[in-house]
Amino acid sequence: MFSSFNNFLSSSNADIAVVQALEFSEEDNIKLMNDYDFAIVSCKEAVRRMLIRRGITHSAWGKLYKSILWEKIRFPYQRLFEDYLTIFDVFSKASYVAISNAKIYYYFQRAGSIMHTQCNKKTVSIVQATQEVTPRIIGYWPELEIEALDLQI
Q1: pLDDT band at residue 93, thresholds of 50, 70 and 90?
Q2: CA–CA distance, 12 with 10 (Å, rounded to integer)
Q3: Which of 101, 105, 111, 135 would bridge 62 by S-S if both were Cys, CB 3.0 to 4.6 A apart?
């Protein structure tokens, strides 16, 4: 699977490659996929899919990027949801995105992790992050205003 994914990326003009995550915990028995698809889409289409939560997340993990996309972009220091605050800026620099349904990013879910804690004042900062990011998304892709506003809610 990894070699065919690498071959696909090498032959495409994609600036970003997206794969899916296989979430698992200690109790799970991991099974690898044998069937998977690849597609090349415009950056705007990739962002639209991200905004409507169809096959692409706003997280930084599960993606490969051309290094030039990060030339002037950095994650904000000591901010929660730093991937959400940054990912749309990175995508704004890309032309094409390769998307696969291959689950080759392994995401271990630990019972005591921060992802499994109850909401507190820090986790509410997602509201602030969406208020910062939504105008930038609309500035980059005005045609996606409805989707961007929907994600903000």
Answers
A1: very high
A2: 6
A3: 105
Where residue 42 falls among pLDDT bands split at 50, 70, 90?
Answer: very high
Q: CB within 8 A of 105, min separation 6: which ones?
A: 19, 20, 21, 22, 61, 62
**Token code pair at residue 69:** 């996309």
18, 98 contact by CB (below 8 A): yes
Per-residue pLDDT tens for 100-148? Answer: 888 887 777 666 665 556 666 666 677 888 899 999 999 999 999 999 9
Taking phi over 0 as left and psi of -120 to 50 as alpha, with beta for the rest, 62 belongs to: left
In single-letter form, the type of residue at position 138 comes to I
How wide is the angle at C-alpha 18 spanned by C-alphas 32 and 142, nearest 5°?
150
